[in-house]
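User: Round two. Same drill as before: sequence, then structure, for each protein.

Assistant: Same drill it is. First protein:
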Amino acid sequence: MIELAREEGIALLTLSRGKVNALDEPFVEQLGKSLGHLASDREIRAVIVTGQGKFFSFGFDIPELLAYSKNSFARYIAKFCSLYTSMFLFPKPLIAALNGHTMAGGCILAIACDYRVMASGKAKISLNEITFGSTLPAGCVEMLRYCIGPGNAQAVLYSGAMYSAEGALRLGLVDQVCPPEELLDAARKVAKDFAQREGSAFKSIKTLLRGPVAQEMARREKDAALEFVDIWYSEATWRKLKEIEIRA
Protein backbone atom coordinates (compact mmCIF):
# COMPACT_ATOMS: atom_id res chain seq x y z
CA MET A 1 0.00 0.00 0.00
CA ILE A 2 3.01 2.28 0.47
CA GLU A 3 6.13 2.36 -1.67
CA LEU A 4 9.43 3.66 -0.30
CA ALA A 5 12.35 5.05 -2.30
CA ARG A 6 15.50 6.73 -1.01
CA GLU A 7 17.81 9.14 -2.77
CA GLU A 8 20.56 11.33 -1.31
CA GLY A 9 19.07 11.43 2.16
CA ILE A 10 15.51 12.09 0.92
CA ALA A 11 12.79 9.45 1.38
CA LEU A 12 9.86 9.29 -1.03
CA LEU A 13 6.71 7.61 0.30
CA THR A 14 4.14 6.88 -2.41
CA LEU A 15 0.59 6.04 -1.37
CA SER A 16 -0.53 3.19 -3.59
CA ARG A 17 -3.74 1.66 -2.30
CA GLY A 18 -5.99 1.04 -5.28
CA LYS A 19 -6.84 3.82 -7.72
CA VAL A 20 -7.74 6.53 -5.18
CA ASN A 21 -5.57 5.79 -2.13
CA ALA A 22 -8.58 5.66 0.19
CA LEU A 23 -7.75 5.41 3.89
CA ASP A 24 -8.70 2.42 5.99
CA GLU A 25 -7.33 1.09 9.27
CA PRO A 26 -4.47 -1.08 7.89
CA PHE A 27 -3.40 1.73 5.56
CA VAL A 28 -3.32 4.25 8.40
CA GLU A 29 -1.31 1.80 10.52
CA GLN A 30 1.18 1.13 7.73
CA LEU A 31 1.73 4.82 6.97
CA GLY A 32 2.31 5.50 10.65
CA LYS A 33 4.87 2.69 10.92
CA SER A 34 6.66 3.83 7.77
CA LEU A 35 6.98 7.37 9.08
CA GLY A 36 8.08 6.09 12.47
CA HIS A 37 10.95 4.16 10.89
CA LEU A 38 12.01 7.18 8.83
CA ALA A 39 11.91 9.45 11.87
CA SER A 40 14.61 7.32 13.52
CA ASP A 41 16.66 6.68 10.36
CA ARG A 42 19.78 8.83 10.68
CA GLU A 43 20.45 8.73 6.93
CA ILE A 44 17.10 10.35 6.10
CA ARG A 45 17.00 14.13 6.42
CA ALA A 46 13.62 14.87 4.80
CA VAL A 47 10.55 12.95 3.63
CA ILE A 48 8.21 13.48 0.67
CA VAL A 49 4.72 11.96 0.67
CA THR A 50 2.89 11.64 -2.65
CA GLY A 51 0.27 9.44 -4.31
CA GLN A 52 -0.04 7.37 -7.43
CA GLY A 53 -2.48 8.03 -10.26
CA LYS A 54 -5.08 10.80 -10.24
CA PHE A 55 -5.44 10.97 -6.46
CA PHE A 56 -3.20 11.93 -3.59
CA SER A 57 -5.98 10.46 -1.48
CA PHE A 58 -9.76 10.28 -1.69
CA GLY A 59 -9.87 10.37 2.10
CA PHE A 60 -11.66 7.73 4.16
CA ASP A 61 -12.63 4.50 2.43
CA ILE A 62 -16.27 5.18 3.20
CA PRO A 63 -17.82 1.99 1.70
CA GLU A 64 -15.42 -0.12 3.78
CA LEU A 65 -15.81 1.95 6.94
CA LEU A 66 -19.58 1.66 6.76
CA ALA A 67 -19.12 -2.01 7.59
CA TYR A 68 -17.30 -1.15 10.84
CA SER A 69 -19.14 -1.34 14.13
CA LYS A 70 -19.34 1.93 16.04
CA ASN A 71 -16.60 0.76 18.44
CA SER A 72 -14.36 -0.32 15.56
CA PHE A 73 -14.86 3.01 13.82
CA ALA A 74 -13.99 4.85 17.05
CA ARG A 75 -10.78 2.81 17.20
CA TYR A 76 -10.00 3.77 13.59
CA ILE A 77 -10.59 7.48 14.30
CA ALA A 78 -8.22 7.32 17.28
CA LYS A 79 -5.52 5.82 15.03
CA PHE A 80 -6.15 8.38 12.31
CA CYS A 81 -5.87 11.26 14.81
CA SER A 82 -2.64 9.76 16.15
CA LEU A 83 -1.28 9.54 12.59
CA TYR A 84 -1.86 13.17 11.64
CA THR A 85 -0.60 14.37 15.02
CA SER A 86 2.63 12.43 14.52
CA MET A 87 2.93 13.92 11.04
CA PHE A 88 2.31 17.44 12.38
CA LEU A 89 5.15 16.94 14.89
CA PHE A 90 7.37 14.80 12.65
CA PRO A 91 10.96 15.66 13.66
CA LYS A 92 12.21 16.06 10.08
CA PRO A 93 10.94 18.14 7.15
CA LEU A 94 7.80 16.54 5.72
CA ILE A 95 6.72 17.63 2.23
CA ALA A 96 3.42 16.72 0.55
CA ALA A 97 3.60 16.37 -3.24
CA LEU A 98 -0.07 16.51 -4.17
CA ASN A 99 -0.23 14.70 -7.48
CA GLY A 100 -4.01 14.72 -7.79
CA HIS A 101 -7.31 15.06 -5.93
CA THR A 102 -6.73 15.60 -2.21
CA MET A 103 -10.01 15.15 -0.39
CA ALA A 104 -11.23 15.17 3.23
CA GLY A 105 -8.97 12.79 5.18
CA GLY A 106 -6.35 13.07 2.44
CA CYS A 107 -6.37 16.83 2.83
CA ILE A 108 -5.94 16.42 6.59
CA LEU A 109 -2.76 14.43 6.00
CA ALA A 110 -1.54 17.11 3.61
CA ILE A 111 -2.04 20.00 6.03
CA ALA A 112 -0.11 18.06 8.68
CA CYS A 113 3.00 18.42 6.52
CA ASP A 114 5.47 21.29 6.59
CA TYR A 115 5.10 22.20 2.92
CA ARG A 116 2.63 21.34 0.15
CA VAL A 117 3.39 21.35 -3.58
CA MET A 118 0.32 20.71 -5.77
CA ALA A 119 0.06 19.77 -9.42
CA SER A 120 -1.87 22.21 -11.60
CA GLY A 121 -4.69 21.03 -13.84
CA LYS A 122 -7.89 19.22 -12.91
CA ALA A 123 -6.92 18.17 -9.38
CA LYS A 124 -8.99 19.57 -6.50
CA ILE A 125 -8.29 19.88 -2.80
CA SER A 126 -11.05 20.06 -0.21
CA LEU A 127 -12.15 19.53 3.34
CA ASN A 128 -15.67 18.74 2.18
CA GLU A 129 -16.95 16.85 5.24
CA ILE A 130 -19.86 19.23 5.78
CA THR A 131 -21.28 18.35 2.35
CA PHE A 132 -21.95 14.77 3.44
CA GLY A 133 -23.05 15.64 6.96
CA SER A 134 -19.83 14.96 8.83
CA THR A 135 -17.83 17.07 11.23
CA LEU A 136 -14.03 16.89 11.66
CA PRO A 137 -11.62 15.88 14.40
CA ALA A 138 -10.53 18.81 16.56
CA GLY A 139 -6.88 18.34 15.66
CA CYS A 140 -7.63 18.86 11.99
CA VAL A 141 -9.31 22.18 12.72
CA GLU A 142 -6.37 23.34 14.82
CA MET A 143 -3.88 22.38 12.10
CA LEU A 144 -5.96 24.18 9.48
CA ARG A 145 -6.14 27.35 11.60
CA TYR A 146 -2.38 27.15 12.03
CA CYS A 147 -1.86 26.83 8.27
CA ILE A 148 -4.28 29.39 6.85
CA GLY A 149 -5.64 31.44 9.75
CA PRO A 150 -9.08 31.33 11.41
CA GLY A 151 -10.95 33.33 8.78
CA ASN A 152 -9.83 31.21 5.85
CA ALA A 153 -10.32 28.06 7.91
CA GLN A 154 -13.93 29.03 8.55
CA ALA A 155 -14.51 29.66 4.84
CA VAL A 156 -13.00 26.29 3.88
CA LEU A 157 -14.91 24.28 6.49
CA TYR A 158 -18.31 26.00 6.28
CA SER A 159 -18.43 25.75 2.48
CA GLY A 160 -16.86 22.35 1.89
CA ALA A 161 -15.71 23.87 -1.41
CA MET A 162 -13.35 22.12 -3.78
CA TYR A 163 -10.39 24.31 -4.71
CA SER A 164 -8.14 24.19 -7.71
CA ALA A 165 -4.41 24.25 -7.07
CA GLU A 166 -4.36 27.98 -7.86
CA GLY A 167 -7.29 28.68 -5.56
CA ALA A 168 -5.65 26.69 -2.77
CA LEU A 169 -2.45 28.66 -3.28
CA ARG A 170 -4.31 31.94 -2.79
CA LEU A 171 -5.72 30.64 0.50
CA GLY A 172 -2.38 29.33 1.70
CA LEU A 173 -3.75 25.78 1.67
CA VAL A 174 -0.80 24.86 -0.56
CA ASP A 175 2.57 26.58 -0.80
CA GLN A 176 3.50 26.00 -4.44
CA VAL A 177 1.86 24.98 -7.71
CA CYS A 178 3.63 23.46 -10.68
CA PRO A 179 2.84 21.40 -13.80
CA PRO A 180 2.23 17.71 -13.04
CA GLU A 181 5.36 16.60 -14.85
CA GLU A 182 7.47 18.87 -12.61
CA LEU A 183 5.84 17.93 -9.31
CA LEU A 184 8.36 15.48 -7.90
CA ASP A 185 11.34 17.56 -9.02
CA ALA A 186 9.80 20.59 -7.28
CA ALA A 187 9.16 18.56 -4.11
CA ARG A 188 12.71 17.18 -4.17
CA LYS A 189 14.12 20.70 -4.44
CA VAL A 190 12.10 21.80 -1.41
CA ALA A 191 13.15 18.68 0.50
CA LYS A 192 16.83 19.22 -0.33
CA ASP A 193 16.63 22.87 0.74
CA PHE A 194 15.13 21.81 4.07
CA ALA A 195 17.65 18.96 4.42
CA GLN A 196 20.54 21.42 4.33
CA ARG A 197 19.40 22.86 7.66
CA GLU A 198 20.94 21.46 10.81
CA GLY A 199 18.59 18.68 11.92
CA SER A 200 18.44 19.38 15.64
CA ALA A 201 17.84 23.08 15.04
CA PHE A 202 15.01 22.33 12.61
CA LYS A 203 13.40 19.92 15.08
CA SER A 204 13.65 22.46 17.91
CA ILE A 205 12.16 25.31 15.88
CA LYS A 206 9.37 23.08 14.56
CA THR A 207 8.53 22.05 18.13
CA LEU A 208 8.50 25.69 19.26
CA LEU A 209 6.13 26.57 16.41
CA ARG A 210 3.85 23.57 16.54
CA GLY A 211 4.10 22.34 20.10
CA PRO A 212 1.48 24.75 21.51
CA VAL A 213 -0.88 23.85 18.66
CA ALA A 214 -0.38 20.14 19.36
CA GLN A 215 -1.12 20.72 23.05
CA GLU A 216 -4.45 22.32 22.12
CA MET A 217 -5.11 19.44 19.71
CA ALA A 218 -4.57 16.93 22.51
CA ARG A 219 -6.73 18.87 24.95
CA ARG A 220 -9.73 18.89 22.61
CA GLU A 221 -9.24 15.67 20.66
CA LYS A 222 -10.93 13.04 22.84
CA ASP A 223 -14.30 14.78 23.28
CA ALA A 224 -14.34 15.94 19.66
CA ALA A 225 -13.58 12.41 18.44
CA LEU A 226 -16.56 11.07 20.38
CA GLU A 227 -18.76 13.75 18.81
CA PHE A 228 -17.32 12.91 15.38
CA VAL A 229 -18.30 9.26 15.79
CA ASP A 230 -21.79 10.12 17.06
CA ILE A 231 -22.46 12.40 14.09
CA TRP A 232 -21.01 9.84 11.65
CA TYR A 233 -23.53 7.27 12.93
CA SER A 234 -26.48 9.66 13.00
CA GLU A 235 -29.35 8.77 10.69
CA ALA A 236 -29.02 11.83 8.43
CA THR A 237 -25.26 11.48 7.95
CA TRP A 238 -25.42 7.69 7.54
CA ARG A 239 -27.94 8.13 4.73
CA LYS A 240 -25.62 10.53 2.86
CA LEU A 241 -22.57 8.34 3.44
CA LYS A 242 -24.27 5.36 1.84
CA GLU A 243 -24.79 7.40 -1.32
CA ILE A 244 -21.06 8.04 -1.76
CA GLU A 245 -19.29 6.05 -4.47
CA ILE A 246 -15.54 5.89 -4.92
CA ARG A 247 -14.71 6.42 -8.57
CA ALA A 248 -11.27 7.00 -10.03
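Second protein:
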Amino acid sequence: MRYADRVVIVTGGTKGIGRAIVEEFCRAGAVVTFCSHDPAGGVELADAVTRRGPGRAQFGLCDVSKADDLARFIETTARAHGRLDCLVNNAGWHPPHHPIDVFTPDDFRQLFELNVMSVFVGCRTALPWLRQTRGCIINIASLVATIGQHHATTYVASKGAVLAFTKALAIDEAPHGVRVNAISPGNIYTPLWQEAIDASPDPAATRAAGEAAQPMGRMGEPAEVARLCLYLAADATFTTGADHIVSGGAELGYGKKV
Protein backbone atom coordinates (compact mmCIF):
# COMPACT_ATOMS: atom_id res chain seq x y z
CA MET A 1 0.00 0.00 0.00
CA ARG A 2 2.83 2.40 -0.84
CA TYR A 3 0.49 4.69 -2.79
CA ALA A 4 -2.82 4.13 -1.04
CA ASP A 5 -5.72 6.30 -2.20
CA ARG A 6 -3.52 8.48 -4.40
CA VAL A 7 -5.05 9.42 -7.74
CA VAL A 8 -3.00 8.49 -10.81
CA ILE A 9 -3.55 9.05 -14.53
CA VAL A 10 -1.77 6.82 -17.06
CA THR A 11 -1.98 7.43 -20.80
CA GLY A 12 -1.65 4.50 -23.17
CA GLY A 13 -2.49 2.14 -20.34
CA THR A 14 -4.01 -0.85 -22.09
CA LYS A 15 -0.97 -2.75 -23.34
CA GLY A 16 2.71 -3.33 -22.67
CA ILE A 17 4.45 -0.94 -20.31
CA GLY A 18 1.32 1.13 -19.73
CA ARG A 19 -0.69 -1.92 -18.68
CA ALA A 20 2.03 -2.95 -16.25
CA ILE A 21 2.08 0.55 -14.76
CA VAL A 22 -1.67 0.46 -14.19
CA GLU A 23 -1.35 -2.93 -12.48
CA GLU A 24 1.59 -1.85 -10.31
CA PHE A 25 -0.07 1.32 -9.01
CA CYS A 26 -3.27 -0.59 -8.25
CA ARG A 27 -1.28 -3.15 -6.27
CA ALA A 28 0.07 -0.20 -4.28
CA GLY A 29 -3.47 0.91 -3.41
CA ALA A 30 -3.84 3.79 -5.86
CA VAL A 31 -6.92 4.93 -7.74
CA VAL A 32 -5.82 4.73 -11.37
CA THR A 33 -7.60 6.20 -14.37
CA PHE A 34 -6.05 5.22 -17.68
CA CYS A 35 -6.83 5.80 -21.32
CA SER A 36 -6.21 4.38 -24.76
CA HIS A 37 -8.06 3.92 -28.04
CA ASP A 38 -8.82 0.25 -27.23
CA PRO A 39 -12.18 0.17 -25.41
CA ALA A 40 -12.45 -3.61 -25.09
CA GLY A 41 -8.95 -4.03 -23.68
CA GLY A 42 -9.36 -1.04 -21.40
CA VAL A 43 -12.59 -2.23 -19.81
CA GLU A 44 -11.16 -5.74 -19.38
CA LEU A 45 -8.05 -4.42 -17.63
CA ALA A 46 -9.96 -2.04 -15.36
CA ASP A 47 -12.27 -4.83 -14.23
CA ALA A 48 -9.42 -7.29 -13.68
CA VAL A 49 -7.18 -5.04 -11.57
CA THR A 50 -10.08 -3.69 -9.56
CA ARG A 51 -11.16 -7.22 -8.66
CA ARG A 52 -7.63 -8.01 -7.50
CA GLY A 53 -7.23 -4.76 -5.57
CA PRO A 54 -6.34 -3.29 -3.24
CA GLY A 55 -6.53 -0.22 -5.49
CA ARG A 56 -9.02 0.31 -8.26
CA ALA A 57 -8.89 1.29 -11.91
CA GLN A 58 -11.11 3.15 -14.34
CA PHE A 59 -10.80 3.29 -18.12
CA GLY A 60 -11.50 6.21 -20.43
CA LEU A 61 -11.47 6.22 -24.21
CA CYS A 62 -9.16 8.99 -25.41
CA ASP A 63 -7.03 9.84 -28.44
CA VAL A 64 -4.07 11.57 -26.83
CA SER A 65 -2.94 13.00 -30.18
CA LYS A 66 -6.03 15.25 -30.03
CA ALA A 67 -5.26 17.99 -27.54
CA ASP A 68 -8.86 18.75 -26.61
CA ASP A 69 -9.66 15.08 -25.96
CA LEU A 70 -6.65 14.62 -23.70
CA ALA A 71 -7.21 17.84 -21.77
CA ARG A 72 -10.85 16.91 -21.22
CA PHE A 73 -9.91 13.42 -20.03
CA ILE A 74 -7.41 14.71 -17.47
CA GLU A 75 -9.60 17.54 -16.21
CA THR A 76 -12.65 15.29 -15.90
CA THR A 77 -10.66 12.70 -13.96
CA ALA A 78 -9.17 15.21 -11.55
CA ARG A 79 -12.50 16.88 -10.90
CA ALA A 80 -14.23 13.55 -10.32
CA HIS A 81 -11.74 12.65 -7.57
CA GLY A 82 -11.09 16.16 -6.32
CA ARG A 83 -7.33 15.70 -6.63
CA LEU A 84 -4.48 14.35 -8.75
CA ASP A 85 -1.22 12.95 -7.38
CA CYS A 86 0.64 11.52 -10.38
CA LEU A 87 0.52 11.76 -14.16
CA VAL A 88 2.30 9.11 -16.22
CA ASN A 89 2.68 10.16 -19.86
CA ASN A 90 3.19 6.75 -21.43
CA ALA A 91 1.26 6.84 -24.71
CA GLY A 92 3.46 6.78 -27.79
CA TRP A 93 4.38 4.90 -30.93
CA HIS A 94 7.52 3.70 -32.71
CA PRO A 95 7.05 3.73 -36.49
CA PRO A 96 8.69 1.09 -38.69
CA HIS A 97 12.40 1.56 -39.30
CA HIS A 98 13.19 3.52 -42.47
CA PRO A 99 15.89 5.92 -43.70
CA ILE A 100 14.97 9.59 -43.56
CA ASP A 101 14.14 9.60 -47.27
CA VAL A 102 11.03 7.50 -46.61
CA PHE A 103 9.54 9.70 -43.89
CA THR A 104 7.46 12.68 -44.99
CA PRO A 105 7.01 15.98 -43.14
CA ASP A 106 3.46 14.89 -42.35
CA ASP A 107 4.77 11.62 -40.88
CA PHE A 108 7.03 13.63 -38.60
CA ARG A 109 4.28 16.05 -37.55
CA GLN A 110 1.84 13.27 -36.74
CA LEU A 111 4.39 11.42 -34.65
CA PHE A 112 5.17 14.61 -32.71
CA GLU A 113 1.46 15.11 -32.03
CA LEU A 114 1.36 11.69 -30.40
CA ASN A 115 4.79 11.39 -28.75
CA VAL A 116 5.51 15.00 -27.76
CA MET A 117 2.46 17.24 -27.94
CA SER A 118 0.47 14.80 -25.80
CA VAL A 119 3.13 15.11 -23.09
CA PHE A 120 2.95 18.91 -23.23
CA VAL A 121 -0.87 18.96 -23.12
CA GLY A 122 -1.00 16.35 -20.39
CA CYS A 123 1.43 18.21 -18.16
CA ARG A 124 -0.12 21.60 -18.80
CA THR A 125 -3.59 20.32 -17.91
CA ALA A 126 -2.54 18.30 -14.87
CA LEU A 127 -0.21 20.80 -13.22
CA PRO A 128 -2.82 23.00 -11.50
CA TRP A 129 -3.98 19.85 -9.69
CA LEU A 130 -0.51 18.43 -9.06
CA ARG A 131 0.66 21.67 -7.47
CA GLN A 132 -2.09 21.31 -4.87
CA THR A 133 -0.93 17.82 -3.86
CA ARG A 134 2.79 18.37 -4.47
CA GLY A 135 2.52 15.44 -6.84
CA CYS A 136 4.68 14.21 -9.67
CA ILE A 137 4.93 13.65 -13.41
CA ILE A 138 6.65 10.68 -15.04
CA ASN A 139 7.32 10.87 -18.78
CA ILE A 140 8.17 7.66 -20.61
CA ALA A 141 11.00 8.46 -23.03
CA SER A 142 13.41 5.91 -24.55
CA LEU A 143 17.01 4.79 -24.34
CA VAL A 144 17.44 5.68 -28.02
CA ALA A 145 16.87 9.35 -27.20
CA THR A 146 20.35 9.19 -25.67
CA ILE A 147 22.19 6.69 -27.87
CA GLY A 148 20.37 7.03 -31.23
CA GLN A 149 18.92 4.25 -33.34
CA HIS A 150 19.36 3.03 -36.91
CA HIS A 151 16.65 4.22 -39.32
CA ALA A 152 14.59 5.87 -36.59
CA THR A 153 15.25 9.61 -36.96
CA THR A 154 11.67 10.72 -36.30
CA TYR A 155 11.14 8.52 -33.26
CA VAL A 156 14.51 9.36 -31.72
CA ALA A 157 13.86 13.07 -32.20
CA SER A 158 10.45 12.80 -30.55
CA LYS A 159 11.80 11.00 -27.49
CA GLY A 160 14.74 13.40 -27.29
CA ALA A 161 12.20 16.21 -27.11
CA VAL A 162 10.44 14.42 -24.25
CA LEU A 163 13.71 14.22 -22.30
CA ALA A 164 14.57 17.88 -22.86
CA PHE A 165 11.04 18.94 -21.94
CA THR A 166 11.20 16.88 -18.74
CA LYS A 167 14.35 18.64 -17.55
CA ALA A 168 13.04 22.11 -18.32
CA LEU A 169 9.69 21.48 -16.66
CA ALA A 170 11.39 20.04 -13.57
CA ILE A 171 13.16 23.37 -13.07
CA ASP A 172 9.93 25.35 -13.42
CA GLU A 173 7.88 23.15 -11.11
CA ALA A 174 10.37 22.54 -8.30
CA PRO A 175 9.25 25.69 -6.43
CA HIS A 176 5.71 24.26 -6.48
CA GLY A 177 6.85 20.94 -5.02
CA VAL A 178 6.06 18.99 -8.20
CA ARG A 179 8.72 16.50 -9.28
CA VAL A 180 9.13 15.74 -13.00
CA ASN A 181 11.16 12.72 -14.09
CA ALA A 182 11.67 10.54 -17.16
CA ILE A 183 12.06 6.81 -17.61
CA SER A 184 13.97 5.61 -20.68
CA PRO A 185 13.33 1.94 -21.41
CA GLY A 186 15.58 -0.07 -23.68
CA ASN A 187 14.38 -3.33 -25.21
CA ILE A 188 11.28 -4.28 -23.26
CA TYR A 189 9.32 -7.30 -24.45
CA THR A 190 5.96 -5.72 -25.25
CA PRO A 191 3.23 -6.46 -27.81
CA LEU A 192 4.89 -3.88 -30.09
CA TRP A 193 8.13 -5.87 -29.94
CA GLN A 194 6.20 -9.05 -30.70
CA GLU A 195 4.63 -7.37 -33.73
CA ALA A 196 8.14 -6.59 -35.03
CA ILE A 197 9.18 -10.19 -34.45
CA ASP A 198 6.13 -11.54 -36.26
CA ALA A 199 6.68 -9.19 -39.22
CA SER A 200 10.32 -10.22 -39.60
CA PRO A 201 11.36 -12.65 -42.34
CA ASP A 202 13.19 -14.59 -39.63
CA PRO A 203 11.24 -14.21 -36.36
CA ALA A 204 13.56 -16.43 -34.33
CA ALA A 205 16.62 -14.44 -35.38
CA THR A 206 14.87 -11.15 -34.65
CA ARG A 207 13.91 -12.29 -31.16
CA ALA A 208 17.45 -13.56 -30.54
CA ALA A 209 18.94 -10.25 -31.68
CA GLY A 210 16.63 -8.37 -29.32
CA GLU A 211 17.74 -10.54 -26.42
CA ALA A 212 21.44 -10.31 -27.31
CA ALA A 213 21.46 -6.50 -27.41
CA GLN A 214 21.75 -6.41 -23.60
CA PRO A 215 24.74 -7.63 -21.59
CA MET A 216 22.16 -9.27 -19.34
CA GLY A 217 21.20 -11.48 -22.29
CA ARG A 218 17.49 -10.83 -22.25
CA MET A 219 14.88 -8.18 -22.90
CA GLY A 220 13.22 -6.49 -19.98
CA GLU A 221 9.70 -7.13 -18.78
CA PRO A 222 7.05 -4.36 -18.61
CA ALA A 223 6.69 -5.01 -14.88
CA GLU A 224 10.32 -4.01 -14.36
CA VAL A 225 9.60 -0.57 -15.83
CA ALA A 226 6.40 -0.31 -13.80
CA ARG A 227 8.20 -0.95 -10.52
CA LEU A 228 10.60 1.89 -11.32
CA CYS A 229 7.63 4.11 -12.08
CA LEU A 230 6.06 3.42 -8.68
CA TYR A 231 9.40 4.05 -6.97
CA LEU A 232 9.66 7.47 -8.59
CA ALA A 233 6.15 8.37 -7.49
CA ALA A 234 6.19 6.92 -3.99
CA ASP A 235 9.77 6.93 -2.76
CA ALA A 236 12.09 9.15 -4.84
CA THR A 237 11.16 12.33 -3.01
CA PHE A 238 14.49 14.08 -3.68
CA THR A 239 14.65 13.23 -7.39
CA THR A 240 13.55 15.54 -10.17
CA GLY A 241 14.62 16.31 -13.74
CA ALA A 242 16.37 12.95 -14.03
CA ASP A 243 16.37 10.36 -16.79
CA HIS A 244 16.15 6.83 -15.39
CA ILE A 245 17.47 4.28 -17.88
CA VAL A 246 16.12 0.75 -17.60
CA SER A 247 17.90 -1.14 -20.35
CA GLY A 248 19.74 -4.21 -19.09
CA GLY A 249 22.96 -2.36 -19.92
CA ALA A 250 22.29 -2.12 -23.68
CA GLU A 251 24.16 1.18 -23.89
CA LEU A 252 27.33 -0.17 -22.29
CA GLY A 253 30.53 -1.31 -24.01
CA TYR A 254 31.09 -1.49 -27.72
CA GLY A 255 28.38 -2.28 -30.22
CA LYS A 256 28.35 -3.44 -33.81
CA LYS A 257 28.28 -0.33 -35.96
CA VAL A 258 27.87 -1.75 -39.47
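The chain has one domain: 7-186+221-234.

User: Perfect.
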